[in-house]
Amino acid sequence: MQAVIMAAGRSTRTYPLTATRPKPLVPIWDRPLLEHQLRQLDGLVDEVLLVVGFLREQIEGRFGDAFGGLRLRYVAQERQRGTADALLAARPHVDARCLVLNGDDFYHRDDLRGLSERGRGVLVTQAKDPENRAVVQLEGDVITGIVEKPKDPPKDAWCSVGGYCVEGDDLRYLDEVVPSPRGELELPDFILRLIEESVVRAKSIERFWLPITYSWDVLQAALFLWEDPARARELGLVAETPSAIRARGDVTLGRDVRIEGPVRLGANVRIGDGTRLFGPIAIGSGARIAEEAVVERSILFDDVVVGARARVLDSVLGERVSIGAAARIESCPGAELAIDVKGKRVVPEIARLGVVAGDGVSIDASAVVPAGTLI
Question: How, if at all, do strands 209-211 and 105-107 pair?
Fold first, then answer.
């Protein structure tokens, strides 16, 4: 069996993190999003077709032609003209039943297994924002219709989460898909055509589904995964005790460092005297956290520098971000924010949010950065 992962887009809603990397390489705790996806597919399928475009060389360089027991094959989508166009690019290489998955969502293998075993189907859930998704109409578990981003959907609507199972012969209907009002070839339109010819069933999410839509979802995913430590352990995520950190030869931990909650440190990290770390926190390789700094519930990519007595709360910091001494990143409940994303005001669905800083950002000493700032 095969899987197609659609990973070609620029992912502008995830800026600033995806200004310099494709979304599949955005780290979720200790590994890229795409690695999480491949781990869930390993053992369920034999080959993954990766539809790539934006900064494709980074993905190909990171993963090569195999992962675990999976063969990896790369298919170029030269122009990003929609999800159905991405599947169209992969069609010459699909020879039987296959899973078709969004490249920016995190699925659990149990849900993917259930989807693959039932034949033609769509993964669905009762999402909080059905107006932003493809809403399915059901008779029992049979899909009778699908509407992309309806204006006034019921709050309990069942929504597609971008996971599909199709047969190889079904892909001929891609030729009948016409551009949507957005000018794109959309997979829901392909599913509509498939519904006319076949029985397509809904498979509800039973474990979990994590969409990485906005930049702060990188933090939200880590919070969700560590909300239940058993969930994190099942996925192979690791947190380290202070004693285990001190025993590592590639980490320097100063005196009187206080660590609470799950913390993960990459290689060659230096933590200064009197620093306080309150998890969940993932700190990438080469990071430097100076004396008496405070970092709480945050994700720091590689080579981040946090100055002495600086305070970083509920934030995502890209590679080589520098926070000056005594700088303060503020935090507040997500519900109190309205962040401009591509001209649309978005209220973050996260308990608390500080800032999201893209690669190479520098914040001056003693600066105060308001909550909800994207830099």
Answer: antiparallel
Contact in structure between 309 and 325 (CB atoms under 8 Å): yes
Structure tokens at 356: 């999201």
pTM reported for the whole predicted model: 0.93
Domains of the chain, earliest start first:
2-211 (3.90.550.10), 235-374 (2.160.10.10)
Beta bridge partners of 283: 265, 300
> Are the beta carbons of 235 and 249 closer than 8 angstroms?
no
**For residue 319, how far is the Cα from the chain centroid?**
17
Q: Are 269 and 285 in contact (CB under 8 A)?
A: yes
Cα–Cα distances in angstroms (integers) from residue 126 to residues 235, 313, 334, in the given order? 24, 31, 21
Judged by phi (left if over 0) then psi (alpha if -120 to 50, else beta), residue 8 lies in alpha
pLDDT at 221: 96
* pLDDT for res 149: 82
**Phi/psi at 320 (5° precision):** 65, 20
The residue behind tokens 């002495």 is: 308
The string of pLDDT tens digits covering residues 98-139 is: 999 999 999 999 999 999 998 999 999 998 888 878 899 999
Within its chain, how far is the Cα of 43 from the centroid? 21
Structural contact between residues 195 and 144, judged by C-beta atoms closer than 8 angstroms: yes
Residue type, 293: A
User: How far apart are alpha carbons 228 and 371 in whole angstroms?
Assistant: 26
pLDDT band at 150 (very low <50, low <70, confident <90, very high): confident
| pLDDT level of residue 323 (50, 70, 90 thresholds) | very high
